[in-house]
Amino acid sequence: MKIVEPSESQLETIKAILSYQFDSRVADAFIKKPLKISMRLGKIRYVYLEEKRIMTLRPTDFGFTLDIESGKIVLENSEYPKYRVVVKEGVNYLGDVMGIDVIDADPSIKPGDEVVIINNKGEIVGIGKARVPGFMMKSIGKGEAVRIRKVLKNGQKS
To answer: Does domain 3-76 have CATH number 3.10.450.90?
Structure first.
């Protein structure tokens, strides 16, 4: 796929989706960056920053999946606890964050939302998809709270 500069219309589309999925402050932060896109079947599919893919547009529901870099942008441009799930340190996260590992979570998170997983120092641990509402995450015990999509291991993206 060819990586190109987005048109004004395509930037507006990206901004509208991010405003809906997150909020206008997060959307504005992304739009101010030198984004590039690649398309599939005439529609935006991937969003790049400095030649790195940072988001993928899901064709099923037209929401963006995040990567570690885009998760950092979300964190930098939103107030705690928005879009965050805080987890215990020292747990090896291989596929799921269980409720017993959740210290705190944005109570407005809905199942299916993209979330940024952080430790209690505020450092990014990974990116995932919420499986239960944020207000329930701490109370579900050994149940799956977040399905991890990307994880940062020792400062390295996996």
So the answer is: yes
Reduce the DSSP state of residue 82 to 3 states and report it: coil
Span 104-132, pLDDT tens digits: 999 999 999 999 999 999 999 999 999 99
DSSP lists the bridge partners of residue 147 as 96, 129
Task: Please report the DSSP string for 112-156 in residue order.
Answer: T-EEEEEETTS-EEEEEEESS-GGGGGGSTTSEEEEEEEEEETTE
What is the pLDDT confidence band of residue 155, given thresholds at 50, 70 and 90?
A: very low
The rounded distance, in Å, linking the Cα atoms of 80 and 61 is 26
The structure tokens 């929401």 sit at: 63
Structurally, at CATH architecture level, domain 84-157 sits in: Roll (2.30)
Question: How many angstroms from the chain centroid is the CA of residue 158?
Answer: 15
pTM here is 0.92
Q: Is 22 exposed, middle or buried (0-12, 13-18, 19+ CB in 10 A)?
A: buried
pLDDT tens digits, one per residue of 20-49? 999 999 999 999 999 999 999 889 999 999
Q: Please report, for the chain, the start and end positions of each structural domain, with discontinuous segments joined by +.
A: 3-76, 84-157
In single-letter form, the type of residue at position 30 comes to F
